[in-house]
Amino acid sequence: MENIKENLEQPQRKHKIHKEFLNELSIEQIVIIYTYYRMGHEILCPENFDGILQESKVQQFVVGKTEGNINYFGSKLYGHNFIDNVMSGVYSSGDYELFLMLLDFLHNETKIQCEEYDMLKNNLLNR
After folding, report:
1. How many Å apart are CA 93 and CA 49, to the nearest integer?
2. What is the Cα–Cα distance from 30 to 70, expressed in whole angstroms?
């Protein structure tokens, strides 16, 4: 019974944690991360970054940093392959500082334990 209760409480904890993290980010940073996610998820060309960024703003974030937008984007944070999709977009863009913030958050909160991410982080920090 205790295990069931703990499993039900886990999404609430994640929701609270990602909300705190996203509240620290500006709407511009959220839109950029979301754009990187889309670029990797939809396999979009990095040359079209500005157009994809505008499309992301209009598509999802036209009203700014609302409760609904934070919840929508927060749900993506814990999604399958989120970091891989973002990584694909970021790698092409060169915006490593924002990516490192995101990577640190996900590493600490979702306990990503992967040599690949640690190696990538070290490579980005040494640029």
Report:
1. 8
2. 9
Total residues found in the chain within this entry: 127
Distance CA(26)–CA(33), nearest Å, equals 11
How far is 122 from 9, CA to CA, in rounded Å? 34
Token pair for 60: 């999802």
Report the share of the chain in percent with pLDDT over 70: 66
pLDDT digits (tens, 9 = 90+) for 48-88: 788 888 888 888 888 888 888 888 887 777 666 777 777 77
Q: Which two tokens stand for residue 28?
A: 């511009």
* C-alpha closest to that of 97 among 73, 64, 127, 52: 127
| Residue whose tokens read 């640690």 | 118
Distance, CA of 78 to CA of 69 (rounded, Å) = 15
**Distance in angstroms (rounded) separating the CA atoms of residues 24 and 57:** 19
Say which residues have a Cβ less than 8 Å from residue 74's Cβ, sequence separation at least 6: 15, 18, 19, 22
